[in-house]
Specification:
351 residues, alpha/beta, Dihydrodipicolinate Reductase, domain 2, seven-stranded mixed sheet, six-stranded parallel sheet, 13 strands, globular
């Protein structure tokens, strides 16, 4: 998809969301290259939270679009809770503001399709910060995969013991919805393939402090026939994995391993990127707005990672495999009935 470019350096932005993760973005933005980005304001529905987070003198507001207009910002960085991703991003795109948003793209695939349509209608860039995909070690692992020939199986083991508090503790599927998307997206990146179907089981161990299922195993069939297997838990006292998980890629000509902490075990060549995580996402967003080249994480590219999550949740709930094509078709039908903007609804109905 083509989108409007912005030839302005530094890029003036408004940060939306002053919660815990919003404060991480705030610290990164304040420390970022002054020739790349300039923070013009912080928006949050809770004005007191915005005032508490923002440094003295930085404008704050409860309406991010109005704050952007007032301060001359040209883009939004949306770090709100998942429920706010759709309304905040939609309003920004139709106000002529490109958006860099935190994962997930939206709360549901139907909302994601609506946001994709909004980006197409407005010609504005909407990019998702799938930050763990930007780990330089993952890029080097992908270089190894390219040399393994045909790939039979990719597996990820993820085991942590995290006590977050707040909305994550109350989610029905905290592992699949809030965390597994990172691994699912990384698997798509490593294989250069998309999911065809998934069989998933989820459950909550007796000692879990989460209301919903904190454990899950999912087996994806990917285009080309490779199987991707995800085995994860939020409730693993004792030995834990990296936040990236532990990876094994079994191919025709050998096996590549990555523990998520250190370099992959086989030598490989991949472009070195001096940035990682959310800082790498910010650089990719600004560079895309300057050049017009679609970045990794652009809404069209990222949508299938969210679809993997929704398909895995459906499979876990129903107890049988789910095809991704069926998930996308059902999501499109829901989006047409949910969407309140007539122009977006027409775009969805046109496919």
């Amino acid at each position: 998809m083509s989108f409007r470019t912005i030839d302005e350096s530094p890029l003036p932005v408004v940060l939306v969301g002053a919660g815990g993760f919003g404060r991480q973005w705030l610290a990164m933005l304040l420390a970022a290259d002054k020739n790349m980005v300039e923070l013009r304001g912080v928006a949050d529905l809770d004005l007191e939270a915005a005032r508490a987070a923002a440094p003295p003198g930085l404008p704050v507001g409860s309406d991010p679009v109005e704050l952007a207009r007032r301060t001359g910002a040209k883009a939004l960085i949306n770090v709100t809770v998942p429920a706010a991703h759709h309304p905040v991003t939609t309003a920004a795109l139709f106000a002529g503001l490109p958006v860099l948003g935190e994962k997930p793209l939206a709360e549901s695939v139907s909302q994601a399709l609506s946001l994709r349509a909004a980006a197409e209608l407005t010609g504005e860039l909407f990019m998702v910060s799938q930050s763990r995909r930007r780990n330089p070690q993952l890029a080097r692992l992908r270089a190894l995969v390219d040399g393994l020939g045909r790939i039979g199986t990719v597996t990820t083991t993820f085991a942590r013991s995290e006590r977050f508090g707040g909305f994550r503790d109350r989610m029905a599927q905290p592992l699949l919805v809030d965390m597994a998307i990172h691994a699912f997206d990384a698997a798509r990146y490593l294989l250069g393939a998309d999911p065809v179907s998934v069989w998933c089981q989820s459950w909550n161990p007796p000692w879990s402090w989460f209301d919903g299922d904190a454990n899950a195993v999912a087996v994806f069939e990917m285009t080309g026939g490779t199987r991707y297997v995800y085995n994860g838990t939020w409730c693993s006292p004792g030995e834990i994995t990296s936040w990236n998980g532990a990876w094994r890629i079994s191919g025709e000509h050998g096996t590549a391993l990555w523990d998520g902490h250190d370099e992959p075990l086989l030598p490989g060549n991949a472009p070195d990127d001096p940035y990682g995580g959310i800082e790498a996402s910010l650089h990719a967003f600004v560079e895309a707005l300057r050049t017009g080249e679609p970045p990794s994480g652009e809404v069209h590219e990222n949508l299938m990672s969210l679809a993997m999550v929704e398909a895995a949740v459906l499979s876990a709930e129903r107890g049988f495999p789910v095809r991704l094509e069926d998930v996308l078709t059902a999501a499109r039908d829901r989006a047409v009935t949910e969407e309140v903007r007539p122009d977006v609804r027409r775009r969805l109905m046109a496919g």
